[in-house]
Amino acid sequence: MAGLRDAVASEALEANRAASSLTDDGVAAALLAAAALVRERRAEILGANAADYEAAEGKLDEGMLDRLKLDDKRVEALAEEVEAVAVIGPLEREIQSWTLPNGLQVSERRIPIGTVGANFEARPNVALDVAGQLLKSLNTAVLRTGGAALRTVTVLVDEVLRPALEGAGLPAGAVGLVRSADRKGARMLVTMPERIPLVILRGSGQTTADLARLAAEHGVRTLAHAEGGGVLYVHEAADRARALAMVEAALDRLGVCNRLNLALLDRRAAHLLPDLLAAFGKKGLEVRGTPRAIEAAGDGVLPFDRERLGHEWANEPERVSTVTLDVVDGLEDALRIANEETSGLAAGIVTEDRAAAERFLDGYRGTAAFWHAPTRFTDGFELTGAPETGINVDTVPGPRGPVTYRDLWLRQYRVVGDATQTR
What is the pTM of this model? Predict the structure, then answer.
């Protein structure tokens, strides 16, 4: 344990010392170079990934294996994503400025955090996404991936990111890596507040929630993406064609956090229930119902799982092809469920009634609210043009929803006088 902690602390110390050297131009050059190196070292990346994949077969489910695996097309996508981050404009540092009556010139500014940790699932693309976002915001990084992807991520750090940083005149240590598959590495990452004050936690389920609690005990702040699941409320004034289009668009992929997870059908729109069930069936989904939904559908149509109304089925490989259905008593009931019984990731409404839509949008407290648009757009790149580090569902001030480089900063006041001002 001491050896692992020392190793993580060493990576963090290198990153700390590199932080003051980062510049917007230098990072942009480094990311462009990294994209070139991804293409140049494609064979090394694919070789490491093949070894990871072979070792993981029989241990990971099919969905996780798919997210782990790279091929030529996915490697090219890695390069394109890094290039996209490189050419995005840098973060505007000055928010606003003013002069006080006593002549002091005050500016409110965005400054880097310093070193930020990131713990993420065994998905190689996330290593470049997160590192790119952190560097773009002039923060340094210490990465920790799921053990199944460690060979691939090690190549991406040591053969792509670090050489690219050095080639741009920046310290290679600006991107560190927890070089152990031991899950204790994640615990180390969230217990070093003096070196890693903020950790991005990506992944779903209890493990991420446990890491967030451990971080809080040690004074480390987190941006945690622990749970997801999109909600769709079919209002009494919903158009049938539009409602079915929303279902189709929200279920194009199942193993993702922002897909349709919970459908809320207004009791006054119960005539749409057969159409919704048919749409779910066409997608091959098992529909889990509440007592109200079972009653509306008729005996024997739906299995019962009321105790887990807002549970994100995408977390569970054996239940990924599942959606939950409830029949609600109007808009306020739908809002209550979306706000109180789900993760707070995203919820949408289908209705031709503008007043009802605006009430839903104003009343929902989650990170993203939709009207006639699928919750699948709860995604940093789709909404802002910048890849995300994760989706933060905290209910405290700060970045919520998709977190990008534009969110990874601290506020600082800069004050300039002429030595005549006194209190």
Answer: 0.86
| Token pair 């109180």: residue | 340
Which residues, 6+ apart, have CB-to-CB distance to 223 below 8 Å?
A: 198, 199, 200, 201, 389, 390, 392, 394, 399, 403
Which of the listed CATH numbers 3.30.565.10, 3.40.50.1100, 3.40.309.10, 3.40.50.200 matches domain 230-382?
A: 3.40.309.10
What span, in angstroms and rounded, lies between the C-alpha atoms of 206 and 54? Answer: 27
Which amino acid would we find at residue 8?
V
Mean of pLDDT over the chain: 93
Cβ within 8 Å of residue 27, ≥6 positions away: 135, 136, 138, 168, 170
Distances in Å between the alpha carbon of 147 and those of 41, 154, 213, 235? 22, 11, 22, 45
Domain 2-226+399-414 fold is: Aldehyde Dehydrogenase; Chain A, domain 1 (3.40.605)
Contacts of 142 (CB under 8 A, 6+ apart): 8, 11, 12, 15, 115, 116, 117, 118, 176, 177, 178, 189, 196
pLDDT, tens only, 229-281: 999 999 999 999 999 999 999 999 888 889 999 999 999 999 999 999 999 99
